[in-house]
């Protein structure tokens, strides 16, 4: 078969840059960000995050060709806000969101492994996460009717009425 090796879709070649930035000459205050070895997954996430910023006037992406493993993201911002700054802020926000998602997943996995699955809201999840990071002996009120005792990484559940 004459298909290219699979690793070519995600490994950068020697000297190949992950991202390049070019000014868009057709539109004022706009840039084109070309990201190598990425596809629709990352393109759509970044575009969505950029559009949450009120100073971003336009954000879109395209994959130039299905056999090319790169995406081109076009960003246009207000005159007092650079596209590079918008892109950097979007990436920073995404990293924060994904870190929070990972932490929540780890807490849920920990509770599941302890045969205890409780639906936490965001505030409770942060509280429990901070405690789990230390794995000490901790008594923590989760809800008015429920208390978790965390001892040496094991979660014990106590009802209060």
Describe the structure.
This protein is an alpha+beta fold and about 160 residues long. The protein folds into two domains: about 1-100, RNA polymerase, RBP11-like subunit (Gyrase A, domain 2), CATH 3.30.1360; about 115-160, no CATH class. Residues about 135-145 and about 155-160 have low confidence and may be disordered. A hairpin with a 2-residue loop joins strand 6 (about 145-150) and strand 7. The chain has helices at about 40-50, 85-115, 120-135; strands spanning about 20-25, 30-35, 55-60, 70-75, 140-145, 145-150, 155-160. The protein starts with 18 loop residues before the first strand and ends with a strand. The chain has three helices and seven strands; from the N terminus they run ββαββααβββ. Strands 1-2-4-3 form a four-stranded antiparallel β-sheet, covered by helices on one side. A three-stranded antiparallel β-sheet has the order 5-6-7, with helices on one face.
Task: Note the main attributes of this structure.
disordered C terminus; 3-stranded antiparallel beta sheet; 3 helices; 2 domains; DNA-directed RNA polymerase activity; single chain; 35% helix; 161 residues; 4-stranded antiparallel beta sheet; 7 strands; alpha+beta; Gyrase A, domain 2
At CATH level 2, the architecture of the largest domain is: 2-Layer Sandwich
Secondary structure tally: strands: 7
Proportion of beta-strand residues: 25-35%
Number of helices: 3
What is the topology, as strand order, of the major beta sheet? Answer: 1-2-4-3
Predict the CATH topology of the largest domain: Gyrase A, domain 2
Number of domains: 2
Distance between termini? Answer: 67 Å
Assign the CATH class of the largest domain.
Alpha Beta
Mean pLDDT score = 79
InterPro entries: RBP11 (IPR037685), RBP11-like (IPR036603), RBP11-like_dimer (IPR009025), RNA_pol_Rpb11_13-16kDa_CS (IPR008193), Rpo11-like (IPR022905)
Protein name: DNA-directed RNA polymerase RBP11-like dimerisation domain-containing protein
Family: Belongs to the archaeal Rpo11/eukaryotic RPB11/RPC19 RNA polymerase subunit family.
GO molecular function: DNA binding; DNA-directed RNA polymerase activity; protein dimerization activity
């Amino acid at each position: 078969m004459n298909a290219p090796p699979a690793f070519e879709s995600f490994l950068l070649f020697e000297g190949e840059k992950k991202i390049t930035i070019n000014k868009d000459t057709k539109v004022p205050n706009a840039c084109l960000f070309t990201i190598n070895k990425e596809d629709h997954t990352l393109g759509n996430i970044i575009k969505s995050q950029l559009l949450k910023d009120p100073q971003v006037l336009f954000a879109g992406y395209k994959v130039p060709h299905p056999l090319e493993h790169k995406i081109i993201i076009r960003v246009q911002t207000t005159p007092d806000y650079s596209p590079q700054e918008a892109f950097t802020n979007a990436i920073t926000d995404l990293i924060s969101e994904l870190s929070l998602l990972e932490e929540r997943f780890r807490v849920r996995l920990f509770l599941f492994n302890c045969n205890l699955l409780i639906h936490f809201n965001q505030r409770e999840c942060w509280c429990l996460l901070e405690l789990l990071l230390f794995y000490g002996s901790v008594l923590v009120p989760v809800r008015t009717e429920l208390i978790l005792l965390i001892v040496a990484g094991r979660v014990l559940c106590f009802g209060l009425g």
